[in-house]
Amino acid sequence: MNILVIRRDNIGDLVCTTPMLAALRKAMPNAWIGVLVNQYNVAVMRGNPDVNDVFAYRKAKHRGPGESKLAIWLETAGLLWKLRRKGIDVAIVASPGGDRYARLVGARRIIADKPGAPFHEVEAVGKLLVPLGIEPELGALQLTPLPEVVAAMRPKLAELSGRKIWAIHLSAREKSRRWPAEKYIELIERLASPERGFALFWSPGPADHPAHPGDDEKAALVLAACRDKGAVPVVTERLEELIAALSLCDGFVGADGGAMHLAAALNLKTAALFENSEAKRTRWYPWGARHVLLQPTTFAVADISVDQVEAAVRELEGT
To answer: Mean pLDDT over residues 164-192, rounded?
Structure first.
């Protein structure tokens, strides 16, 4: 049987799909399992042992300088034609809008009815296997840092060698998930010690970049205040680099988002900053990792106190 799993949205969504892929491989060891993703999240699938092939298309908004939308669309059409020639028996659609791609590749059967609350995303995606007669046992998130990239990133954290390294991720796509720079600074100042260091991560680039808004300015503020407190900048231009660098850390502090799910997949102790939403915390908490989930009394992550996050880090460390 040729099975294509379609997951064309964000990094965390794809990470939360990996336990389903492992369950599918266990139930159908001889099946061809392909995954259709996009260039933004494809690094999550690098080295995944449960799939035969990974197909990644580019979104028009991610095209390079001088490239036309038409060129991107033609490139995608060629990829879909290749999949159509493969002969897809079943397409499992794990993200909104993916059923259109399932039809374009000529899938003989399409499974796309993913349940909503009260399930975690891992569980909801796992239930897509039930129509195939599979009652999945959903294990840990799967993520494989590439050894050569880990080796390239290790020197960036070399000055923290011998310390517990906490990854501090400054960025969040949605405004309501952003914790202010001054609170990150106060947190690092409170936690700074000879035994503890901080690897500072953020989305690189200026805040006004049209395709990939970044947090260079925010990172500069935090580094200016905390460079002598054991905070080390870790610039990651590619997702493979972020995965590799996080794998060298012991813990993670950051908002609900792709980086948090990467940290969970790497089994980092996680202080997760969430909006005050029952639906979000039920569906998106860090699956499988030891964590403390933090929420404010209001809605926005900005209202989580430094006291809360400091206490979470110390609890996770067992101090």
So the answer is: 97
